[in-house]
Amino acid sequence: MRIATWNVNSITARTPRLLAWLESTGTDVLCLQEAKTTEAQFPVAELRELGYESAVHATGRWNGVAVISRVGLEDVVKGLPGDPGYEDVQEPRAVAATCGPVRVWSVYVPNGREVGHAHYAYKLRWFEALRAAVADDAAGGRPFAVLGDYNVAPADEDVWDISVFDGATHVTPAERAALADLRATGLGDVVPRPLKYDHPYTYWDYRQLSFPKNKGMRIDLVYGNEPFTKAVTDAYVDREERKGKGASDHAPVVVDLDV
DNA sequence: ATGCCCCACGCTGTGGGA
């Protein structure tokens, strides 16, 4: 089984590339983030023509997540139980589904904006809710993973130049502690291999030639429990999909499983 | 070549991204 996560930065802008990518890679399950549309406008029909079912949690201009599967789609949960919300709004940042033998969450962790900002506190509270929501599945015997845009670089090596991030979000001890607390439920980091260069970055800013210069970050992560990680036969960042006109600023992370 | 920001909303800018 081939399972992937990809922040598409608007499903509307990315549908042609998404459909072509699903076909060319033979991906069975995709956890998608930043749909940036409503559930009604999500391209469910186009995906169904390719043989995929869609579980979509999206409400409009911002955020929006989905699980797309051609190997079954059961027990869908939209939203994080205990979601703290931001300014009294529970944003669409998490959706879960069981796809054949595997259960997954597709997550889009809040950005945080600046250390000390209310959005940063929200980010940390959101991580705590995520930890609580996945603990039972993480400890269970079924292959389970939380895939998505975590908006945290797990280690200094996961950004191109740590000195640039002095005082910034995405690299703070508190954010990394939140990742560690999440892993402590029984999840391991499935680190993909890069297709080029030394480090498996998954995001490159659109500006300042970041991609050609490989000024990237590894912030799209796959955290799996032991039944999941034991089944992994390969994992890579599909940087080819970051190239050219009409690319997302994130590349897909692809994981092959023997399940 | 990988190439100098892009998305939605909705309008001549604004907010958000990281």
Automatic annotation (TrEMBL):
The keyword Hydrolase applies. Its cofactor is Mg(2+); Mn(2+). The keyword Metal-binding applies. Keywords: Hydrolase, Magnesium, Manganese, Metal-binding. Probably binds two magnesium or manganese ions per subunit. Residues 4-250 form the Endonuclease/exonuclease/phosphatase domain. GO terms for molecular function: double-stranded DNA 3'-5' DNA exonuclease activity; metal ion binding. One of its GO terms (biological process) is DNA repair. The record marks D220 as: Important for catalytic activity. Mg(2+) binds at N7, E34, D149, N151, D249, H250. The active site is at Y108, D149, H250. It holds the Pfam family Exo_endo_phos. Belongs to the DNA repair enzymes AP/ExoA family. This is Exodeoxyribonuclease III. It comes from Streptomyces uncialis.
